[in-house]
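Hey, I was hoping to borrow your eyes for a little while. I've been puzzling over a protein and I'd love to understand its fold better. The fold is given in discrete form, as structure tokens running alongside the sequence. I'd be grateful if you could look everything over and explain what you see. No rush at all, and the record is pasted right below.
>
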Amino acid sequence: AREDADVQAAVKEIADKLGEDGRILVRESGTEPVIRVMVEAKTDHLAEKYVNQVIKVIEDKGHAV
């Protein structure tokens, strides 16, 4: 999923929006069949919003159910 161009574009867009005020990490688990999405932002609301945006792209592309 991380190699998918649309997922990469979504992650880059969010990273650009966060700038120095946060970070985003998307990785496949080494022990479970899951993709982990982590966002640190100024507020919980922003973090949740950005996590949900990336998850939607991952789901829309068929990388997760």
The chain has two helices and two strands.
